[in-house]
Amino acid sequence: MQIIKAKVMGYCTGVKLAINKAEAALREGPVYSLGALIHNKAEMERLKLLGLKVINANEVPPAGATAMVRAHGLHPQKRQELLAAGVTLIDATCPFVLNNQHTLQSYNTNGYFAIIIGQKEHAEITALVGFSHNYVVISTVTEAEQLVTLAPKIVVMAQTTFDKTNYEHIKEVLANRYTLEAPPSICPAPLSRLKALEELSPLAEALVIIGDKDSANSLTLCNKALSLNKNSFLVEKESDFDKIFLKNYHTIGLAASASSPSWLINNLELFLQED
Q1: Of the CATH numbers 3.30.160.70, 3.40.1010.20, 3.10.290.10, 1.10.390.10, which one belongs to the domain with range 96-177?
Q2: What average pLDDT score do residues 78-94 get?
Q3: Counting Cβ atoms within 10 Å, is residue 41 exposed (0-12), middle (13-18) or buried (19+)?
Q4: What global pTM score does this model have?
């Protein structure tokens, strides 16, 4: 079996930053995480062993505790609540997410109605909506077609990991109905991994995508793989290989999401080679 790796795979800059900040903080003592720091179970388990205490995003750690703001960001009201409770915050918000928050806040100050394209319950979106007083969250073309607003000024923004093709379709529907502004809001990191996957696909009989099933960018990468090759599989851990039959293929393409750590990628690649 030959394994061919995608040219771009694994951690993006924002995730690296969050992990580096967490490791540095944990060297000083216990740290709370307001929900999963990143969407990767294996990496979160590693950080828990170092002392990271993951709590529900709606909880408040004890006064005097240190807590990480995860890569997806934090609703401004929640930030104020935590600071008022005497919690020290280490902000690990992805720089691209942070930029979107600032952009939306600026449009909000100037009286814009925000149409936010993304998954309503995703941590990034639940944080982002805190930067606008007048908004709606949608995720489908149908919702865009059914949307009714009389707002004179409209801005469209997206979840950073939202599928770009779907985003463009939704934006096109909105642009045909309303005059709007649409500043860049989709992160280029997942896009570069999608491009690398497209280049990898013709070289392999099957595609293995390393990523977490709870990760939006992992699911986008896997869906893209399936559109390129029906013999595509999303893998989180070694035991996932028990459910798929890769020995029938001579060439395996290996790709990984922007929230997959290098140590996990290396371990799963070695497991594939030895299997």
Answers
A1: 3.40.1010.20
A2: 97
A3: middle
A4: 0.89
